[in-house]
Write a structure and sequence with these properties.
This protein is an alpha/beta fold and 335 residues long. The protein has eight helices and 19 strands. Strand 10 and strand 11 form a beta hairpin. The longest helix is centred in the C-terminal third of the chain and has 14 residues. The structure holds flavin-adenine dinucleotide and FE2/S2 (inorganic) cluster. FE2/S2 (inorganic) cluster binds next to loops. This is 2Fe-2S iron-sulfur cluster binding domain-containing protein. Keywords: FAD, Flavoprotein, Iron, Transport. It comes from Candidatus Seongchinamella marina.
Length: 335
């Protein structure tokens, strides 16, 4: 166990050999800024003033040559490699809603095929794990390493955790889960992480916008609201896929069954005519479907999730074109 010091005060924290600088800080209740925990966004850049670090992912796309020359590292991809490490970073105030992440074992209990290359993986866990609807976990995949997956479960102290995962064409982690993982396999899991959780203290109605595997945290929010009718919000869900065989509207509606007529679903397909088949619904990117259908933008709280180009287009549409205040838009980008 090494001690890490934050420059400019008395703050120190312990960093075990298992942990990155970011995760050890979060376990200690210290809020280093972060978003993806996966080396993709660059939100967790910190400067190393003294001591050594070990970089676990030197090719991480979020760090440039210039950052490296200036002594920046990604807190989510570096371990402490010497005692007396001093970091320069501005700690944010800890949000009391957020739970400190912890490691646990998750046993694969079920694989439910939702659509083409889209499976919901159900894991059982021995002890209650507390997390918020929409948060994500790091799943340790044998021979591959850790990958971030957003939960699709109801949350709140449950002994079950679910993830909707998309098989990527040459993805090492997702292909392992689709083809090699079998019922009963045990996986290391770490979490919860993420700031794009459902805000149950905000009274505004809810708009969910997702593409592809961005479905996962949206199912979590829908299931959470379905079993908690006292949190009575209207929910509009805009879901985008490329091809008709990637869509399963019935599965989404089942998750929202407790919402009754407070729920509406608009799906859009963005693929070729051949991929869309006999689809008679909306066509185009999902932010375009939102644009054509949503009224009174500012009355809603927004949750966006999916690949970076999809979330970027939706953010631009909401925040720039429709002037929705930034604090009403929450998002996770799936790097
Ligand atoms: C916050 C968040 C939530 C996500 N939630 C979901 C979800 O619910 N469902 C879903 O299907 N996908 C989700 N993803 C995407 C998921 O984490 C994987 O990127 C995706 O499954 C592809 O992984 P792969 O191993 O199949 O592909 P690969 O191409 O093998 O790996 C892709 C990703 O793995 C990471 N990676 C690659 N090499 C290394 C390395 N050496 N060290 C550390 N990291 C490395 C990088 O983040 C990279 O983007 C999420 C991503 C993020 C950031
Ligand atoms: S949180 Fe470290 S790069 Fe995104």
């Amino acid at each position: 166990m090494a001690t890490v010091k934050i420059d400019g005060g008395d703050t120190t924290y312990d960093c075990g050999s298992e942990d990155t600088l970011l995760r050890a800080a979060l376990r200690a209740g210290l809020q280093i800024s972060y978003e993806c925990n996966s080396g993709g966004c660059g939100c967790c850049k910190v400067r190393v003033l003294e001591g050594e670090v070990e970089n676990l992912f030197p090719e991480a796309p979020a760090l440039t040559e210039r950052d490296l020359r200036k002594g920046f590292v990604l807190a989510c991809q570096n371990k402490c490699a010497s005692d007396g490490l001093v970091l320069k970073t501005r700690l944010e105030t800890w949000n009391p809603k957020l739970l400190k992440p912890a490691r646990f074992t998750a046993t694969l209990a079920q694989k439910i095929e939702i659509a083409s290359d889209l499976i919901e993986f159900v894991f059982s866990i021995e002890h209650d794990v507390d997390y918020l609807a929409g948060q994500f976990f790091m799943l340790n995949i044998p021979g591959v390493g850790e990958r971030a997956y957003s939960n699709s479960s109801i949350a709140t102290g449950s002994r079950e955790i679910k993830f909707v995962i998309k098989r990527m064409p040459v993805g090492r982690g997702s292909n392992y889960l689709f083809t090699e993982a079998v019922i009963g396999d045990e996986f290391g899991c770490d979490g919860p992480y993420g700031h794009s959780y459902f805000r149950d203290d905000v009274k505004r109605d809810v708009v969910l916008v997702a593409g592809g595997s961005g479905l996962s945290p949206m199912l979590s929010i829908l299931r959470y609201l379905s079993v908690n009718p006292s949190i009575a919000r209207g929910v509009q869900f805009y879901y985008g896929a490329k091809a008709l065989n990637e869509l399963n509207e019935e599965y989404i509606r089942e998750a929202a069954v407790g919402l009754g007529d407070r729920f509406s679903l608009s799906c859009g397909l963005s693929g070729s005519e051949e991929e869309c088949g006999d689809w008679r619904g909306e066509k185009g990117f999902i932010h375009e479907v939102v644009d054509r259908n949503l009224q009174n933008y500012n009355d809603n709280e927004f949750y966006l999730c999916g690949p970076p180009p999809m979330t970027a287009a939706a953010q631009k549409h909401l925040m720039v074109e429709r002037k929705v205040p930034f604090d009403q838009v929450h998002f996770d980008r799936f790097f």
